[in-house]
Amino acid sequence: MAGKPWVVMPLYYYPLNESTWKPLYDAIAAHPDVGFLVVVNPNSGPGSAPLPGKDYVREVPRLNAWPNVRTVGYVRIDYCNKSLAESCAEIDQYASWSQHGDIPGLHVQGIYVDETPNHYSDERSHYLDQLGQFIKNNEGLLGKRTVVHNPGTPPEGKLATFGNPDLVCICEEPYELYLKDGLQQRLNSLSPEHERCIYQISGIPPAKVAETAQQLCQRGQYVFATDLVDDFYESFGPSWHTFVTAVSRHVVSGGCG
């Protein structure tokens, strides 16, 4: 998938039945040329131990069966205020899923670290370095053991490298704020590699979703765009198909890489 755009799907709502995530499965099947980075989040983290619940036990292997899908587990670190031990324990719980050999495909391939700081300090950099090493060395996490940082706003330059993140969400904002000159200046002042950047933009006018999605693909290889204003990680929304199709068309046009 090198050089091709990826759809980011923060999947923060419970799969009550086999059809709950159907729009995602339909998009994955219809667009094999697009990668899908799916953030699995049973309960603001890995959920109950040792397994997250029968519905996740059913659905996570379905996601991992697709070659163009990479699943990552959600861990919130409260801007490094959560103890490192607690954060590592949640990562270990995700990692333990793969030890259940009787459930093929139950695993994640990395961790989406939410609420990482965007202001530098020696203590924060040490925390992120330790956490990143813990993820990369955890044998229960499969695949590339992808480390994703989400500060939500453009991080200070140093924080784009501490913890050795593979991917950094440098902008998680509503559309109106994304367009502001001040934010654009901050984004333009950063110089992270295109293939490491994530953009997650909500509240886009429906008529502008496709155009905005393709513009985001020019700025970062990993994108999420929706017209939803509220609960945009808990529903696919009416613009879901438009968004994914726009990303796929960007592949055809050769716009990314």
Walk me through what this model shows:
The protein has 257 residues and is an alpha/beta fold. It has one domain (6-251): Aldolase class I (TIM Barrel, Alpha-Beta Barrel), CATH 3.20.20. The protein has helices at residues 22-30, 54-64, 84-96, 122-136, 175-178, 181-189, 209-219, 240-253, and strands at 6-11, 35-40, 69-76, 110-114, 146-150, 167-174, 197-202, 222-225. It has an 8-stranded parallel β-barrel, surrounded by 5 helices. The radius of gyration is 17 Å and the shape is globular. The model has no long low-confidence stretch (mean pLDDT 93).
Examine the secondary-structure arrangement and name the CATH architecture.
Alpha-Beta Barrel
- Helix-strand pattern, N to C? EHEHEHEHEEHHEHEH
Distance between the termini: 10 Å
Supply the CATH superfamily name. Answer: Aldolase class I
Q: What are the segments in which pLDDT stays under 50 over at least 5 consecutive residues?
A: none
Query: Level of helix content?
Result: 25-40%
Total helical elements: 8
Give me the secondary-structure category. alpha/beta
Percentage beta strand: 15-25%
Topology:
Elements: E1 6-11, H1 22-30, E2 35-40, H2 54-64, E3 69-76, H3 84-96, E4 110-114, H4 122-136, E5 146-150, E6 167-174, H5 175-178, H6 181-189, E7 197-202, H7 209-219, E8 222-225, H8 240-253
Parallel strand pairs: 1-2, 1-8, 2-3, 3-4, 4-5, 5-6, 6-7, 7-8
Helix pairs in contact: 3-4, 7-8
